[in-house]
Every structure is written in C-alpha cells, then in structure tokens.
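Record 1 of the preview.
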Amino acid sequence: MKLEQVHIDQIRTAFEKMQSKEDLLHVLNQAKPLVYGDKAVPFELKQLTWYANPKLGSKRYAEFKIKKKSGTERCIHAPVAGLKSLQKTLSFVLQCVYEPHNAAMGFVRGRSIVDNAKLHVASKYVYNIDLKDFFPSVDQARVWKCLQLKPFNLNKASSTGQQYMKWADFKEEYLKTEEPVTFLKGKGRMFANTPYGTLYVASNFDLEKDKYVLLGGSSLKTKDGKSLEGTLWLVNKIPETSRLDIANIIASLCCTEMEVERKNEAGEWEKVKRNVLPQGAPTSPVITNIVCQRLDYLLSAVANRFGLNYSRYADDITFSSMHNVFQLESEFLKELHRIISDQNFHIKESKTRLQKDGYRKEVTGLLVNEKANVQQRYIKQLRMWLYYWERYGYARAYDFFLQKYISEKGHVKKGKPDMVNVIGGKLDYLKMVKGADNELYLKLKGRFDALTIVNKPLEENISSISPVNIFSIIDFKIPSTNMEETHQQNTNRLRININPIDSEKGQNKLKRQIIIKKGESLPHEELLENNEEEEKELDLSKHKPIDVSKFLKYFQNGKLKWLTQRL
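->
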C-alpha cells in the first residue's frame, strides 16, 4: 500500500485518542497494512502483552556479534519474529507522530546520508565526533519519560476518565423504573433493550457485587473487529485506564535488560545490568531521535553562536565551518563537552577527528571536499566485480566475491549473500549519491543489466529460458560481419536455429531452420524462407541444435555482438 499524507494524519489522530492498551493495539493494526501490505495479519492483544513482559529476557532477542572495521566486535540483539513485526509497526507509528529536529538526518523519512554530507560540502574545517555506546546508553526510564512529553502526551494529565454511573442511578434517571429489568439470552451474552440502546452484561458479571453501567470506549470491539464504541455495559468494576500505561507498554517493547557500561561516582567505567535500547531493534533509531531532541536543540544553538553547520546522523555528530574554532581547550569544545555530558552521553575520543583543507574530508562515509561523492575505492570495487563476472562467468566470479565479502563483513546473515543483490544495492547507492543521470552510474548500470540478462540465468536457471522470453527483451541489430554479409548485409533479419519450446522432452531437438524478422513473436508456426529460390522442409538429421545459452553469452548491453555458429 502506498503511503500518503492522509494515512499519516489518520495514525496521528488515532494515537491522540488512545486511552488503553486495546487502543494501542487498534492503532498498530491500523498501521500494519501500511508497513507489511494489505494481507498483513492483525496483531492480537495477547501478543502485545507477551512481548511487553520484561521478564521474558532472552526469549525476546537473539544475541550475536559482528566485526567492526576497527577489528573490535559489535553486539547485536535481534528481536524474534513476533517482536520484530510489532517493533517495526510501532516504529512507523512513532515516525508518523513525531517530527524530528532539522539537524537529525538519520532514520528520518525523506532524509539520507547524502543530505547529511551536502550540509558540510566545501567547508574548510570538518569536525567529527561519535557518541559512545549510543543505543545502550539510553535507559528505559528515559524512554518512558520522553513518551510523556509532546507530541506523544502519554501521561495521566491527558487521560480521559471512563464514563459510568451506578446501576441504581441509571434505572432511576434513564429507565424511569424501580422494577427489575428483564435481560434476554443472546449469542453468548445477556442483554436488555433500553431507550438508549442495547445494554450488554459483561461475561464475568456477578449480581451480588456492586453494579455499574459503563459507556463503551473506542477500543471495545467484537471478535470480528466491529466497533462497540458508545454501547452500554453492565459491569461490577470500572477499569482503570491511563495513557501512562501505554507509555509503560511502549517502553517495555522497545527495551531489554543487558550488561552495559556506566560511570560510577568516582568517574570510572563499570559494568552494570540495565534495561536499555538494544542495537538491532527496529524501534531503537526512532526512539534515539526522540530522546536526542533536546541534544539537537542545544547543539544547534551552539553551532549558531559560533557560526558553524551542525548535523547528527544517529551517533555521528558533525560540525563544519570556514574558520577554525576546534582548537584544544577552545570555548566551543568546552561547551560541546558540557552539553553532551549533561544529556547523559559520552564522546568516544578515539573517533574524534578534525579534517582540514588540503586533505580528504569525509562525512558519514562520503567525500565533501567539493561535492558529496563516494570514495574512489567504492568505484574500483564495483568495476572489479563486474569485470570478474564478464571475464570468468558468474560461478567463478561468485567464488571470489564470497571470499572477499565474508572477510570484509565478518558476519553474514542466513544463507550466502547474493552477488547480484549486493552489486545491485551498491549501484542503487551510487545512484542516490551521484544522481540517476550520472554518466559513470549509467555506464556501470548498463554493464550490470547486460550481465543479469545474459549470464546469471544461464548458470543458475537455464531451464527457465525460452525463445519467447529471450527475444522479447532484445532489440536485434545485425552487425556488419563477414560471415553474414552474403545473406544479411541489407536486411533487418536474423537467421538462427531455434529449438521447439513446446517439446514434452524439453529443448532437445531441432525443428527447422528459419529467418526471424525483427520484432517477430515466437514460436512461429509456419515455414519461412531459407534464402533459397524455393521453400522446402529441411532434413533434421543433418542439423544440430544451437545452444541458445551459448548464443546469449555474446549479448552485451542488449546488442548482438557475435553468433556462435555459421548459418
């Protein structure tokens, strides 16, 4: 389903009306088709309750480590499938409600690392700092408190009380009777008809206890999902509802207990167990943007005061300027360290760097000396993979690719990486940085498209290729070659032997030799000319089928370069 502004407005409105966890469930189910598609299965209340239980611990996350570029290891907590779908949907809901600070570039709809880099292009000085243990440095209590503030307002002050009255008062004021009310037996529930609508009896109702008439809220629904908002219910107890309870549930869904580092009273780092944001949860990036709202505001103010550009991409903070205010013990650095410390973050000194004119300047992996651009080694690697694929074929190129990929990444998810997907992703990234009309991108993309059309299917799934599929995607242009000049120098036709596509035993016998006109659809059911004076059937025993796979290997960029057999 395509996301439109009307969908975002609907999510915001529903979020503002939430009063209970049933309402939260309703909002999540309203948002889930926008994340997973129309066929998404709705969440159930028991799922929400189960995964919000912090006592589950290791049952909610799978822990593993991946190697960083520096050689150290990064600990990842990946949520199990059920929790991941909840977190992914919740992340979408929070992004609909929350408008990030202008300086926040990471994990924000409509912003990217390119936007982050462009802000610092052509600056004489670029100053980069990283925040230590960014996600685990945010405690659950901090998440809970931020959700109580604007624009979420998940607090007691914004909670709406339940509308109810005592049963005796309801009979006297509305039913105008002191006589017993007759209740009827419905499908699984007792009810009574009143002038103000049907009055339902709660399933756990006890005549001997206190009795109240409760007005159903927006979260009350039938098993079929039909809303019961505005209906009347006879109950023994008025349920306590508070938007603060929703903040508790969201904070529990987003955090988990793990061992983290914290400074003690002596200023020394020590390991303690805390409920924090895990690195690997879909909700962690958007939650950190919410938590860092105050940080972004203060650092933007400092940047304006000193005439600097400021941006933050997750834990990567960048300042840039045409003048140098980054000297040790400078007023700017003192203010910077004070603000970050006050916001309960810590700078990772080993990754702090000042980049000056005359040297390569880099912001979130992109060069910013003259324009936002990828590094040269990125282009060289792309060219290398494409060359190996063209020169040695997919199978041999993949062996070399896999060895290099694993050595660089250090960790591979389920199964082996797909070289086609990896190269395609790198080309998409290049397109995002350089633009869709960039000459270098178009050249590399053309080589990649030619290889995906010709080579990879031949190695992996040659049985799926048929002449119909082949000739529908290729614009035939006959090259001027000595081998064909006798018959095809002045014609717009290609002559080739075609195996029958409807053979029960597969493409294993030659049917006839034909001349195929440009744009002709296959298979062709009639005998065509053979460049001879008269038409005649051919002796099949004297002809060997052309292997279409070999024929295709010589197509590059959609144009015919060579034929594999004299015709």
